[in-house]
Amino acid sequence: PALLNTLENPQSEYTVDVTVNTNGQAISGIQLELSYDPAILSNVTVAPSENNLFGPNPAVLINSVDQDLGRISYAIALGGLNDDEVTGNGNIASITFNANTALAQSTQISILPKTTVRSLRSTNSLLQSALPLNIIFSTSSAQTGASPTFIPQNLPLQ
């Protein structure tokens, strides 16, 4: 799992990118279904990332953040009907949030089972794996965690 260690980079607001690796598959769209603890993360917003994998004008089909439930629904796709499907690694969204570091030593933005990756050639999801973002707020969590301590800029989907 990716790790965001707020001890090394304390801020009042954090932004992470959601990254996709298509593993050579051509894709036309992605629907993210994410969850987080709304008592710990607040003012959560999602927007298309700069240098988006879907091009400069992707179609945002769903952009819903339920701040009370801690649920993000976000769907992004090719910007036009004549656009070619995309392959490769790239960002699709940026998630911005505030963190209440006094309430917990760590938290996570989890990827829910309804997350899908689509192609125009298939009715099934092409999603092979998805990794959550672990967020560390205290030294005791950072020391006991099995993951290395670094500050990634991406929330990966593969």
Structural commentary:
The protein has 158 residues and is mainly beta. Helices cover 4% and strands 44% of the residues. It is built from 1 helix and 11 strands, in the order ββββββββββαβ. It has one helix spanning 139-144; strands at residues 2-5, 14-21, 29-35, 41-47, 59-66, 71-77, 89-99, 106-111, 116-118, 133-136, 154-157. A hairpin with a 4-residue loop joins strand 5 and strand 6 (71-77). The longest helix is centred in the last third of the chain and has 6 residues, at 139-144. The termini are close together. 28% of the residues are buried. Mean pLDDT is 82; it is low at 141-155.
- Poorly predicted tracts of residues: 141-155
Task: Tell me, rounded to a whole number, the average pLDDT.
Answer: 82
Q: Largest sheet at a glance?
A: 7 strands, mixed
Structural class: mainly beta
A few lines on this structure:
The protein has one helix and eleven strands. It is mostly beta strands.
Helices and strands in order, then pairings?
Elements: E1 2-5, E2 14-21, E3 29-35, E4 41-47, E5 59-66, E6 71-77, E7 89-99, E8 106-111, E9 116-118, E10 133-136, H1 139-144, E11 154-157
Keywords summarizing the entry:
158 residues, single chain, 4% helix, mainly beta, elongated, four-stranded mixed beta sheet, seven-stranded mixed beta sheet
